[in-house]
Amino acid sequence: MDPRPRILDTAFPRQCCSCGTEISHPSENGLCWDCRSATHSLTPPWCEQCGMPIAGRVDHSFRCARCEETRPAYTLARSLYRYEGGIRDAIHALKYHRDFSVIPDLARLFAAGILTHVPDAAAAQLVPVPLHPRKLRKRGFNQSHELAKAICLLVPGAAIWPHLRRVKDTETQTHLSASARRRNVQGAFRAARTPAPESVILIDDVMTTGSTVDACARALHQTGSRHISVLTLARG
Ligand SMILES: [Zn+2]
Ligand SMILES: [Zn+2]
What is the pTM of this model? Predict the structure, then answer.
């Protein structure tokens, strides 16, 4: 799962997973700088809890209607980019084409996001959103776990808490409504070791309605976590 040795670059030049341009700069791996910078990063104003951005100018902090209704168990959730363009292509390349060359690029974005959005990040342990064992066997790797491992190489003191389990093999969430998603993942996660760390950062690639990370947060909260931040690369 490690990025490939540089010596291969001469014989087989790397290409950007999004635009196909040949990559030559050592700070780029599978996603070129142009594609990275062309993707819209998310900025406030946003819901102070789930991080869902809204258009226009808002001068006070607010909580969105969905958070008021569902009361997520996490303290805050933030996503770095809209799920589009180069970021979406990179996530697809990783998940569906096993292109691990994008991992260092994505991990760098995550590391910067942790320092920007997570208060007291140094005290927190990283918890990748787990796959069900059946899905893990099928895919061969968990993209969130691979990203968390790469983040640990970049953030001093960062460590993974690998004991959150997915105990329910849920159907795909893609075509479900927000309330159906919530029911679908209810009770799907369990902490296999207790107590869970007091302070955690849940790591995932994409957040849509937030039902999956909320189900994770509930399992962690039930077993001891009190400061639960969620950081995802993209918001779908
Ligand atoms: Zn590109
Ligand atoms: Zn919200």
Answer: 0.92
Does 22 reside within a domain?
no
Q: Kindly give the residue spans of alpha helices, DSSP state H, lying in 98-210.
A: 103-117, 133-139, 143-152, 178-185
Instruction: Please indicate, yes or no, if residue 187 is contained in any of the structural domains.
Output: yes
Count of the separate structural domains present in the chain: 1
Greater confidence (60 vs 174) lies with: 60
**pLDDT tops 60 at residue 2:** no
Q: How far is the CA of 75 from the centre of ligand 1 (A)?
A: 35
Ligand 1 centroid vs 87 CA: distance in angstroms?
10
Task: For residue 74, count other CB atoms closer than 10 A to its CB.
Answer: 25
| Band of residue 1 on the pLDDT scale cut at 50, 70, 90 | very low
Say yes or no to pLDDT of 170 above 90.
Answer: no
Which has the closest alpha carbon to 36: 93, 100, 102, 131? Answer: 102
Q: Within a domain: residue 36?
A: no
> Do the Cβ atoms of 117 and 233 come closer than 8 Å?
no
Structural domain containing residue 93 = 41-235
What does the pLDDT average to over 52-64?
91
What ligand is nearest to the CA atom of residue 21?
1
How far is 160 from 93, CA to CA, in rounded Å?
Answer: 24
CA 95 – CA 169 distance, rounded (Å): 18
Give residues whose Cβ lies within 5 Å of ion ligand 1. Answer: 16, 18-19, 32, 35
Share above pLDDT 90 across residues of the chain, in percent, rounded to a whole number: 78
